[in-house]
Write a structure and sequence with these properties.
This protein has about 425 residues and is of the alpha+beta class. It starts with a helix and ends with a helix. Residues about 1-20 and about 40-50 have low confidence and may be disordered. It is elongated, with a radius of gyration of 40 Å. It has a six-stranded mixed sheet. A three-stranded antiparallel sheet has the order 1-3-12. The chain has a three-stranded antiparallel sheet with strand order 5-4-11. It has three domains: about 70-125 and about 270-315, no CATH class; about 140-265, no CATH class; about 335-420, Arc Repressor Mutant, subunit A (Orthogonal Bundle), CATH 1.10.10. The protein has 17 helices and 17 strands.
């Protein structure tokens, strides 16, 4: 085979007549290139064959600052009102609730999670918080802006009143380039308030500076006259304590009075934040949001802190705990005082239901109840604490470690397989 390959010679399969023409053409091409390179230059423009390679200057960009989560410790607890609702729910029925499922119920609802956020270095992090709703930031300006935007209406009433059309000669009127709304001449006193109202009501995603870049000036007399005829109503504010509405205020006056009178009592600077996860996740401070998200994500993997807090709260309310299947099985909480049933001293019908559940743990109601009488016996056994009623709809006998669901069924299959292998 090797000899055959050697006998093939060159791998150029071009016919002889083509190969001869190609050689002539190649030789002519090389000669032309040499002539061009050696020709005297008539100007300074770079030619195709003497152009030097060019390299762009490296661009030195500023190192990008990578923001990190706020350096804080986040303690996760159940929110008090949500906790009270859950406790009343457990106390009001006969079911046994899985503690971990209750923990996830809180974690899946950010407004039901209470956070205690403390800076690891108090000198580097300080908080500011709205007393009215818990809104928080590391910037006092953020909280002041929040108080004005969200809580001014708690103390002032906004009303629209009729007024005379503006008098005077106006050479120009401002118009919103986004909506076409006429804002008025830029030299009148109310113009700045009008712009702020537009940003607050229609374009809250913009800064005032961004919005002003969309304002256009119109000098058309007809447009100016249209604004004048339309400016026959104005918005004023009255303090809610002013029941007679005798003291109308502009928006700026209402905000100024609100800040002077109310701000000190509505703003606090705690050493550590106590805030719901829902409020914390809405903070404008991204590093704070990231720290909260990291803590919640870690807790969702294994809700140790939430379970610990719920266990303490449930113990305080005298609720009962037990573990299913074995000492390390899932933990349950119930309001029932569980006690084993003595079938030997019970009426036969009642004993029949109790014995069936004991022999067939984790049985659904449809397998236990055959008629109205057996349903009545089942309910009696549950309400007296002689049977465990799980929230997934199955029943088990009361013992040191009552049998529960998937874990028990899996273990039962393993025991059955082991027994078969032993036989």
């Amino acid at each position: 085979m090797d000899n055959e390959l050697l006998n093939l010679g060159s791998l150029d399969f071009t016919p002889d007549w083509a190969r001869k023409d190609a050689g002539v053409k190649v030789a002519a091409h090389h000669a032309a290139q040499t002539a061009v390179r050696n020709a005297p230059k008539t100007d300074d423009r770079p030619r195709k064959f003497d152009r030097k390679p060019r390299f762009d200057k490296p661009r030195f960009e500023k190192p990008r600052v990578v923001e990190k989560p706020l350096d804080v410790e986040v303690k996760i607890l159940p929110e008090s009102r949500a906790l009270g609702t859950i406790i009343r729910k457990i106390q009001g029925d006969t079911h046994a609730y899985k503690l971990k499922d209750l923990a996830f119920f809180f974690l899946d609802n950010p407004d039901s999670v209470l956070l205690k956020i403390a800076p690891k270095d108090p000198a580097s992090v300080s908080f500011c918080q709205c007393k009215a709703c818990g809104y928080a930031s590391t910037s006092e300006e953020d909280v002041v802006a929040h108080l004005v935007a969200e809580h001014l209406g708690d103390y002032y009433v906004q009303k629209t009143v009729e007024c005379e059309p503006p008098k005077g000669n106006f050479a120009v009127v401002a118009r919103c380039g986004l909506s076409g709304v006429l804002l008025g001449p830029p030299n009148i006193h109310e113009f700045n308030s009008t712009v702020k109202d537009m940003v607050r009501q229609k374009y809250p995603h913009m800064t005032e500076e961004e919005y002003r870049s969309h304002i256009e000036m119109v000098r058309d007399p007809e447009t100016i006259e249209a604004w004048r005829k339309g400016a026959t109503a104005k918005t004023v504010y009255f303090a809610k304590s002013d029941e007679a509405c005798e003291r109308p205020l502009t928006r700026e006056q209402a905000e100024g009075e609100f800040k002077r009178v109310m701000l000190a009592n509505m703003l606090e600077k705690p050493k550590a934040l106590t805030i719901t996860a829902g409020k914390a996740l809405k903070s404008p401070i991204k590093p704070l949001v990231w720290a909260v998200k990291d803590a919640l994500r870690e807790e969702s993997r294994a809700p140790y802190n939430m379970c610990f807090a719920l266990r303490g709260a449930f113990h305080h309310r005298k609720l009962k705990f037990f573990r299913a299947n074995d000492p390390r099985g899932p933990e349950f909480v119930t309001a029932m005082e569980l006690k084993e049933f003595d079938s030997a001293h019970a009426i036969p019908e009642l004993a029949k239901v109790a014995d069936y559940v004991k022999e067939h743990p984790c049985s659904p109601k449809v397998d236990i109840v055959k008629d109205a009488e057996s349903e009545k016996h089942l309910n009696w056994l549950v309400t007296t604490g002689h049977l465990v009623s799980f929230t997934n709809g199955v029943y088990s006998a009361v013992e040191k470690f009552p049998k529960y669901g998937p874990q028990y069924q899996k273990r039962g299959k393993q025991d059955e397989t082991a027994a078969q292998l032993a036989e």
